[in-house]
Amino acid sequence: MNVLLDHLDLFRDGFLGTVSLTATSALLALVLGVLIAGFRVSPVPPLRVFGTVWVTLLRNTPLTLLFLVAFFVLPQVVFPGISSYILGVLALGFYTSAFVCEAVRSGISTVPLGQAEAARSLGMTFVQTLRMVVLPQATRTVLPPLSSIIIALTKNSAIAGAFNNPELFSVQKVLSDKGFNVMVIFVWVALAYLVLVFAISGLFRLLERRLEVAR
């Protein structure tokens, strides 16, 4: 307990850093994931090819390698002077977007084809059909896998700690270097991750119940 109380500021900053990384990366991943899922079911062949390449490339690339590219290639080639926080968000968000895309695409496939055909018969465009007819019905099916994806993102954010981002796992390195018991530190870090995981699970369960009532 003394380790936690004596370094409460450090644990607090690490906890808030993990929350910030997770929330921002999740928002980016959700936006990109839905967009790429739309590409994958689009009637335009180049968009379908782009979506397939995006998902295949990112799902089969180790996240650590993606971090290395983000931190050692992007600043040299595209964005000199960009902050480590933004690079971490980009790496996490892009990687997770591929999994979000597949979850959303699976949800879209559960919506009866007749729904889209009826929308098109009313003169709706593909984008309007997707936004106003298909995605609202697919949301209920998509929520459970999205919950698991966001929880995995929370754990993956620990990699950002190795790239100069303050988060929970980086607290372990700082305190270990000071000679504190590693196992005690890991217990507190693990409990903090459990709090985040339970909070995310509770949020998604609440959303599922709300949508059940709406239906």
TrEMBL record:
Protein name: Amino acid ABC transporter permease
Family indicated by similarity: Belongs to the binding-protein-dependent transport system permease family. HisMQ subfamily.
Transmembrane segment boundaries: 15-37, 49-73, 85-104, 141-163, 183-207
InterPro entries: AA_ABC_transptr_permease_3TM, ArtM/GltK/GlnP/TcyL/YhdX-like, MetI-like, MetI-like_sf
Location in the cell: Cell membrane
PANTHER family per the UniProt record, alphabetical: AMINO-ACID ABC TRANSPORTER PERMEASE PROTEIN YHDX-RELATED (PTHR30614:SF37), MEMBRANE COMPONENT OF AMINO ACID ABC TRANSPORTER (PTHR30614)
Residue stretches making up the ABC transmembrane type-1 domain: 15-204
Signal peptide: none
Coiled coil: none
Gene source species: Streptomyces ovatisporus
Membrane topology: Multi-pass membrane protein
Keyword annotations of the record: Amino-acid transport, Cell membrane, Membrane, Transmembrane, Transmembrane helix, Transport
